[in-house]
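Researcher: Here's the sequence for the chain we discussed earlier.
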Amino acid sequence: MQASHPFRVSRINPNGAYMMACMDGRGQVLVDGRWESLVAGQACLLPPFVMNRFQCLPRLPWKFCWVRYAESRETPSFISSSTPVMGTFAPEPLLYAIQGLRAEAAYRNHPQAQEAWVNLLHQYVMGFAQPQHRDERIVKLWQLVEKNLARSWSLEQMADLAHVSHEHLRRLCRQHLGRSPLQQLTFLRMQRAQRLLSTTTDKIETIAHAVGYENAFTFSNRFKQWVGWRPSEHR
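Model: Thanks. This is the structure I predict for it:
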């Protein structure tokens, strides 16, 4: 896609993960309730059932390719606790695979060939979602945190678990996840809350406590900021 101002897309309730890779220019993507710039050589991967928005900037054309998934609320997404939301990414292989799939669908429409292109696309996305060269301290930290989201985590406690200073933890998280440690904690809590709202009949106050919020009103406000609507509307 090649777009320019005032092009803007807003999806309140996307039914699957969405990945976009920038080839040229610069645009903005709403990530965790904040606008972030996406430039050439970067990709952004947004989880399913979370509001996503992106827009062009005045006098700046924007060229990017994208892949969108269809997923179920009842099935855990392929996006994990160590999946980056933004990071460096070479977009050309993804672009060529998209073009190959489109050409196959338009001219030959051969199911086995289409499946091969789809598998290749998914490999490129997974290469970004689950990178091989990850810092194991970060991976283990978020696995431990994810097992106990009800705990009142502080930056210092998480840094101690990772055996690094809190400033170094901030740098590692920005480098590997594109988020701060506290933003990553909120991301995990919102993902868990969505699953509980979709798969249980627990009260919203009970779910708020299960994901680390003592006050259901605070939880509801934070949920709306990240997901796009209140927990009751989500259910």
